[in-house]
Specification:
By secondary structure, the protein is mainly alpha-helical. It contains 11 helices and 2 strands, in the order H-H-H-H-E-E-H-H-H-H-H-H-H. The chain folds into 2 domains: 3-86, Arc Repressor Mutant, subunit A, CATH 1.10.10; 94-233, Four Helix Bundle (Hemerythrin (Met), subunit A) (Up-down Bundle). It has helices spanning 3-14, 24-37, 49-56, 60-72, 94-112, 118-133, 137-152, 158-180, 185-200, 204-234, 242-246, and strands at 76-79, 83-86. Helix 3 (49-56) packs across helix 4 (60-72), helix 6 packs antiparallel against helix 9 (185-200) and helix 9 (185-200) runs antiparallel to helix 10. It is globular, with a radius of gyration of 21 Å. It starts with a helix and ends with a helix. Residues 1-21 are annotated as: Disordered.
């Protein structure tokens, strides 16, 4: 993509409104994050600090901080000679990430469930109801994260909660794939209802078991995707036609 084409693409994708100085980092981060999650910024595209600073009319500092935040959420990765690029939808270590999530979120449930109030349960139920009617995958990702975080919200270990939320943020992009391409929307909602009902009666171990089952569906979908991708990559390139070879 030539420079002028890249500039036009970024302007059409992200807009070019200059954010207030004190909100620049947060606004730029959210614009980039939304565009990555909904696929408008494709995997592999380089996001250069100066290009973004020029686009938004800010210094490079808030752009640099926004890119660091997105890298911490595994939405960007740094590559030699290219800088920050949008990360692939699914990495080879995605199943390891889900295994870690099961460990962290199980402990968050163990700490939180005994302290959940009826208001917490009603709040979580409200997110499920919104998920039933929502069709925007970006909004669905946010509602999914809020649902889970409500169940974990009373955990006393704040560092644990931060790690859990980082994992949920990382999942949002894959959630779109899960719902749109793997047709797991209804299954996920059933899982959410099961989690909620068990948490509501304070059954800690049953809720943890249901959570592991819920997250393992994601592992299965990832493995199916990676296997299909490997099979596709292993296919031999189509043979050139003799007429083409004559040229």
């Amino acid at each position: 993509m030539r420079r002028t084409e890249k500039e036009q693409f970024l302007r059409e994708t992200l807009g070019d409104e200059q954010p207030p100085a004190h909100q620049a980092r947060a606004i730029i981060e959210e614009k980039l994050r939304s565009a990555i999650l909904d696929g408008r910024l494709p995997a592999g595209i380089a996001l250069r600090q100066q290009e973004l600073a020029t686009l938004f009319g800010v210094s490079r500092m808030p752009v640099r901080e926004a890119l660091r935040q997105l890298e911490a959420q595994s939405l960007l990765r740094v590559e030699t000679h290219k800088g920050a690029v949008v990360a692939p939808l699914i990495n080879e270590d995605a199943t390891d990430a889900y295994a870690l999530r099961i460990l962290l979120e199980s402990e968050a449930l163990r700490q939180s469930i005994p302290l959940l109030t009826p208001d917490d349960i009603n709040t979580a139920r409200g997110y499920i109801e919104k998920l039933e009617v929502e069709t925007d995958y970006t909004v669905m990702g946010t509602l999914n994260r809020l649902f889970h975080m409500t169940l974990y919200s009373k955990a006393h270990n704040t560092r644990l909660l931060k790690l859990v939320e980082d994992g949920l943020n990382e999942e949002e992009r894959f959630l779109r794939f899960n719902l749109e391409h793997m047709n797991l929307g209804k299954v996920s909602q059933n899982d959410h209802l099961e989690l909620l009902e068990m948490a509501a009666v304070g059954n800690v171990e049953a809720t943890i078991e249901a959570l592991a089952h819920h997250l393992n569906r994601g592992v299965e979908a990832i493995n199916a995707y990676l296997s299909a991708r490997k099979a596709e990559d292993a296919k031999p390139a189509p043979a050139l036609k003799k007429r083409a070879l004559a040229h």
